[in-house]
Amino acid sequence: MTTLVTGATGFVGSHVARQLVAGGHRVRVLVRPSSNLRALEGLGVERVEGDLADLVSLDRATRGVRRVFHVAADYRLWTRNPHEIYATNVEGTRRLFDVAARAGVERIVYTSTVSTIAVPIRDGALPNEETRATLGQMIGHYKRSKFLAEIEAMKAAAAGVPVVIVNPTAPVGAGDWKPTPTGRIILDFLNGRMPAYVDTGLNVVGVEDVAAGHLLAAEHGRIGERYILGGRNLTLKQILDALAVITGRPAPHVRLPHAVALVAGYADEFFARITGREPQIPVEGVKMSRHRMFVASDKAERELSYKPGAVEPALAAAVGWYEVHGYVRGHAATKSVAKAA
Questions:
Q1: Are 314 and 205 contacting, i.e. CB atoms less than 8 angstroms apart?
Q2: Which has more pLDDT, 27 or 283?
Q3: pLDDT at 286 over 70
Q4: What domains can you pick out in the chain, each with its CATH number?
Q5: What is the DSSP code (8-state) at residue 293?
Q6: How far, CA to CA in Å, does 252 sit from each of 193, 208, 243, 336?
Q7: What distances in angstroms separate CA 165 from CA 19, 128, 225, 228, 235, one per listed residue?
């Protein structure tokens, strides 16, 4: 039987597809005609052209499929047209669930995000899968769209569609072509564009561990349940210090007040709307940084046998990959490249 992966040209999706192929699965991927296929180079998969908005292509993609990994998402913190984000993340997800259910798919693993869970809790405990956030706590269109899409996943599961939800935290590693917002933090450090930092934090995890967690969820996950695929809770300062050790480059020592970062973000977005370029400091990202997105991911470890590795090797792999692929200005070699060689 065939396994379908949506979003296979993206960071997490490409690693899910590669691990499936390595495990001997027959893999089909849904790709748009305009998709950049670099992440699939050398990978023996069946490609079906289509889109989450195109029912005919979804019917074609799910025909004869046993499992679906729905990893595709519009992951942008800024856009001139926010409706595009909801059209993909909410309407597209609902459409795929309907088509997959009609096709008799045995299991759907839906890739949500830790953002739907990692909200402030009054008693100071770490958020987990039992944390019930509200739409009002979601900052920005991306988070709101994923929150609404997760509701669609739960509705589908309640109606008998075999959906399991995974909530990755902040993945890092090789193959981040776009790159992701977390990857941009690493790149800003490598390119000397981070003279200061804000007081925030993320749960960081290796992308290969996240991909492995998807496969475990397909095997052992309970329908309608959420599983955080996380690694280690780190402040931004700790992440930058780890990068300094990996690369031998100095980490910034100046902490920037959130108010100053927010003003810079609004100014950057103002010029972005004039020039049409994507802002380097999205306001949504600055607003999100006011809260440390720390979580507990022991449920996945307990129920799925999910075992994330150390974060430092994943950060080193990301650094080496960015340098080798020309993302770093001047391509100055660091200790990480020597380790990878």
A1: yes
A2: 27
A3: no
A4: 2-172+204-231+294-309 (3.40.50.720)
A5: B
A6: 10, 28, 11, 19
A7: 19, 13, 6, 9, 26
